[in-house]
Specification:
This protein is an alpha/beta fold. The protein has 11 helices and 9 strands. The mean pLDDT is about 95.
């Protein structure tokens, strides 16, 4: 569907690479479609034992491509592949591993909550700036993040949108380990290879016991409904206008 997402299968490991480094791997609708396709492929193919997510260049992903996202908000009837990607994350039964360097913005962070193993380079910065652009979090992160790190830390991440560095991510349980950048992809692949040798049925059942896919999917739907409301709000219009005009948004006037 797009040249900017590559999916390569080798030795039972499907490596999914966001490959738009000149744009910090900012995600377009087509890229979300390719990511969703990769997860669907993994579910259908018993030869795929684990999935590794990674990003080319100096960032994992800058999150949504804002120009593409703004265009979609003006066409509410258009198919939004992000919904399919999120749903597939929620119901995935295969081990998901992430190798994160540089910025992981928005969904770049919230998708990590669906990964079973997360490795970060020292350059990693996890950022959830949804409130900053007058929206709300997605990917069931308003459910998963407080459960993972507690309400106070999760609220601060959402409300302030300030970066969480690699060492902090490890210390609060958002990542398994911080490894040197030059070893990052190797570490993720070694973990995937180790999982590929484990009994797939046992891993799948263990994951199912640890995650309530039905609850997660339902929470995603709740977030999605609120997000759709926010996209048409005066605050969101101001946020998108400010982005296009390269200025700071002004949220001081509720009717703006």
């Amino acid at each position: 569907m797009t040249e900017f997402v590559k999916a390569e299968l080798e030795a039972g490991i499907l490596t999914v690479t966001m490959a738009r480094p000149d744009k910090k791997n900012a995600l377009t609708n087509e890229m979300y479609g390719a990511l969703a396709d990769a997860l669907e492929r993994a579910e259908k193919d018993s030869a795929i034992r684990a999935v590794v997510f990674q990003g080319d260049g100096d960032s994992f992903t800058a999150g949504n491509d804002m120009a593409d996202f703004a265009a979609q908000s003006r066409e509410p009837q258009a198919e939004r592949h992000v919904v399919r990607f999120l749903r597939n994350l929620a119901i995935s039964t295969k081990p998901l591993i992430a190798a994160v360097q540089g910025n992981a913005v928005g969904i770049g962070t919230t998708m990590l909550l669906h990964c079973d193993l997360v490795y970060v380079a020292p350059t990693a910065r996890l950022i959830t700036p949804f409130v900053n652009i007058a929206l709300v979090p997605e990917a069931a992160s308003t459910h998963l993040l407080p459960a993972r790190i507690g309400h106070a830390r999760a609220y601060a991440m959402f409300a302030f949108g300030e970066p969480v560095d690699a060492s902090t991510a490890v210390s609060i349980g958002l990542a398994n380990a911080s490894v040197p950048l030059e070893e990052l992809r190797m570490k993720a692949r070694e973990a995937a290879a180790a999982l590929a040798k484990r009994p797939a049925g046992s891993l799948s059942k263990t994951k199912a016991l640890m995650r309530d896919a039905e609850t997660i999917s339902a929470h995603m739907q709740r977030e999605g409904a609120v997000l759709q409301e926010r996209l048409t709000s005066a605050e969101a219009r101001e946020a998108f206008a400010a982005f296009a005009e390269r200025r700071q948004p002004d949220f001081s006037n509720p009717a703006r």
